[in-house]
UniProtKB/TrEMBL annotation:
Gene3D superfamilies: Glucose Permease (Domain IIA) (2.70.70.10). GO terms for biological process: proteolysis. Transmembrane segments: none annotated. Keywords: Coiled coil, Hydrolase, Metal-binding, Metalloprotease, Protease, Zinc. GO terms for molecular function: metal ion binding; metalloendopeptidase activity. Residues 122-146 are annotated as: Disordered. Residues 301-395 form the M23ase beta-sheet core domain. InterPro entries: Cell_wall_metabolism_enzyme (IPR050570), Dup_hybrid_motif (IPR011055), M23ase_b-sheet_dom (IPR016047). This is Murein DD-endopeptidase MepM and murein hydrolase activator NlpD, contain LysM domain. It holds the Pfam family Peptidase_M23. It comes from Kordiimonas lacus.
Length: 418
């Protein structure tokens, strides 16, 4: 109780000191009046005035600092917009990179499938599986070369916050890049295997043709010359391969394309290679090259081989072609000359009977005459010559290489007679 009185006394002292009762004297028209203002009234008025001053000060401060707050908010918005735009640009760049790499890999995949000769090569199945999995993860792009792809930002803005969506899709694109890199590695593995196979085939052709004095370079030059003659340029559908992940990762594909082109050109010329048996039953009675002529008894170059047999033995065309000469031509006697194309020709001499005429088209294994002894001869036999690019060649290496060339032509299952 004593404490309450003490506080009350302190309050009364404070009131009497700062808010004593005051009187206001008012004089008007010779009359004097006064108004008494109590201490409590003064305290209420002072409190109201202080509150008004404080409210006015706070309001003025906020008003004066409002522009600074707005400017700070604008700076924050501008910074966030710049960050968002930068993130969006990075995402767009990454998306374009994914598209470019995917298109290049699809070009390579189509090329590899073409090389192995099927629409979808079974050996390329792992790479195809990767492609299908990538497509499944990227539903807005149903195929690598789709011309109709919805905008990625439209999709992003439609689900959740834009920044979170971009980050999510950005991570997804990075994952796709990783999968594309795995796909590229598998394609490289397949391309290297196909390149080794193509180079081995080219080397094998050189080995087979070596006894005939022909080689890949000679056949390719012949093919190019024939193409130039008709005014065209040989086209092996070489794709314009570009680097995907490394500066030189297209080199294997360029080498494979070059090897494939060389192999196709060689095979094209070898389609005219004489691979059939020229006679049904025979034995070698005279070889190609230098000899003493059996009639003239003088040194002589024998331009073919003599295959002896019974009179009337069937004589066959050793490759498809067109008969360019047929008749009695000295010293061959009854002779047939066939142009097989690509620089290859064959001659069949000393026949007893001809079964084809000039201008006729014949197939491999077609009977063109009967063995005889017309012309300058000493006995019944077939004089057989092989020519390439205007030069006579030893027929025996051609006859020995026939089965291997048939395999190169993809006709190894055919018989020598049709």
């Amino acid at each position: 109780m004593s404490n309450d009185l003490t506080l009350l006394e302190k309050f009364q002292i404070f009131r009497q000191r700062y808010f004593p009762e005051r009187q206001l004297f008012l004089r008007s028209e010779g009359r004097v009046r006064f108004v008494t203002i109590g201490s409590y009234t003064q305290m209420v008025a002072a409190t109201a005035l202080s509150s008004a001053l404080i409210w006015g000060s706070v309001t003025s401060y906020h008003y004066l600092t409002r522009d600074q707050v707005l400017e700070a908010k604008n700076r924050t918005i501008t910074t966030m917009s710049a960050q968002y735009e930068s993130l969006s640009n990075d995402f767009s760049a990454l998306e374009m990179e994914v598209e470019r790499k995917a298109e290049q890999l699809e070009t390579r995949q189509q090329f590899l499938e073409e090389v192995v000769g099927v629409e979808k090569a079974s050996t390329a199945a792992p790479a195809q599986d990767d492609a299908e999995e990538i497509a499944a993860q990227n539903p807005e792009r149903t195929s690598f070369n789709s011309d109709s792809k919805p905008g990625f930002f439209a999709e992003i803005l439609g689900a959740g916050t834009a920044q979170a969506a971009i980050l999510s899709n950005n991570d997804r694109r990075k994952n796709l890049l990783s999968r594309l890199q795995q796909m590229e590695a598998r394609q490289q593995q397949l391309a290297n295997a196909l390149l080794s196979e193509a180079e081995a085939k080219i080397a094998n052709i050189d080995r087979i043709l070596e006894p005939t004095k022909l080689d890949n370079d000679t056949l390719i030059e012949k093919a190019e010359a024939l193409v130039r003659k008709v005014g065209n340029q040989y086209d092996a559908s070489q794709a314009d391969f570009q680097p995907v992940f490394q500066d030189n990762d297209q080199e294997t594909f360029l080498r494979l394309t070059n090897s494939r082109q060389r192999l196709e050109m060689v095979t094209l010329v070898l389609n005219s290679f004489p691979v059939g048996k020229p006679a049904e039953d025979f034995y070698l009675s005279e070889r190609f090259g230098y000899r003493i002529h059996p009639v003239k008894k003088t040194p002589d170059n024998h331009n073919g081989v003599d295959l002896a047999g019974w009179p009337g033995t069937a004589i066959y065309a050793t490759a498809q072609g067109k008969v360019v000469r047929a008749g009695n031509i000295w010293p061959y006697g009854n002779m047939v000359e066939i142009d097989h194309g690509n620089g290859f020709k064959t001659r069949y001499g000393h026949m007893r009977k001809l079964r084809v005429s000039k201008g006729e088209t014949v197939t491999m294994g077609q009977r063109i005459g009967d063995m005889g002894k017309t012309g300058r001869v000493t006995g019944t036999h077939l004089h057989y010559e092989v020519w390439f690019d205007g030069q006579v060649r030893d027929p025996m290496p051609f006859m020995k290489a026939a089965n291997d060339v048939l395999e190169i032509q993809g006709r190894n299952e055919e018989t020598s007679q049709q």
